[in-house]
Design a protein that fits this description.
The protein has 213 residues and is α/β, with parallel strands linked by helices. It has eight helices and nine strands.
């Protein structure tokens, strides 16, 4: 996005969906096409896995350090997942938004609700629906990442997640990847153009009105 006016405030873009609905693929495409959009890197107490890079995949910390941040209310959202703690630190997000950089959250509906509660003016929530639960099951089977019982559990969980789509600002069905990507990109572009995020407008308008023509 070139030829931008500055200063502006960044967008906090939250994308959620049931597992297998295509959220991650759409988010990766959006980030690849928009250099000014960065992924919020979560913090975790679990050990680093082969192939992961600290600071890119997660910020790996001790449980004591994580708990200290909880005590300081330093997370936008956090959760205990199978004995490991995961959270989104607030400070780097606040800094990015203040500097006009956009931040993407690829999280579940609970995390989306918590982030939106703490950042009501900045957060833009998008929920992606599958065409059907049967198609969702087919996608989960096709990607061959989970055992059958895990897939069925994901399908059952999807119903609970879909119940919360009314909490989101935008909702669309990912029945065609290219069309869905265009929808996601349009939302992102429109939110970047909101008046309150573009603080340069006031000075620009004043200069236009001051012109002697």
């Amino acid at each position: 996005m070139s030829n931008e006016h500055t200063p502006r405030r960044g967008v906090l873009l939250i994308v959620a969906s049931p597992s297998g609905a295509g959220k991650t693929s759409l988010c990766r495409r959006l980030m690849a096409d928009h250099a000014g959009l960065e992924l919020s890197v979560s913090m975790t107490t679990r050990g680093i896995r082969p192939g992961e890079v600290a600071g890119r995949d997660y910020n790996f910390v001790s449980r004591e350090d994580f708990q200290a941040l909880i005590d300081q209310d330093a997370f936008l959202e956090w959760a205990d997942v199978h004995g490991n703690l995961y959270g989104s630190p607030r400070a780097p997000v606040d800094q990015a938004l203040a500097e006009g950089r956009d931040v993407l959250f690829d999280i579940d509906w609970q995390g989306a609700a918590e982030v939106a509660r703490k950042c009501p003016e900045d957060a833009v929530r998008i929920f992606i629906l599958p065409p059907s639960l049967e198609e969702l099951r087919r996608r989960l089977v096709t990607r061959s990442q989970d055992a059958d019982d895990v897939i069925e559990r994901r399908i059952a969980n999807a119903k609970g997640e879909i119940e919360h789509c009314d909490d989101f600002d935008y909702v669309f069905v990912n029945d065609d990847f290219d069309r869905s990507y265009a929808e996601l990109a349009h939302i992102y572009h429109a939110e970047r153009s909101r008046r309150f995020r573009n603080v340069w407008v006031e000075g620009y308008r004043a200069n236009l009105l001051a012109e002697d023509v």
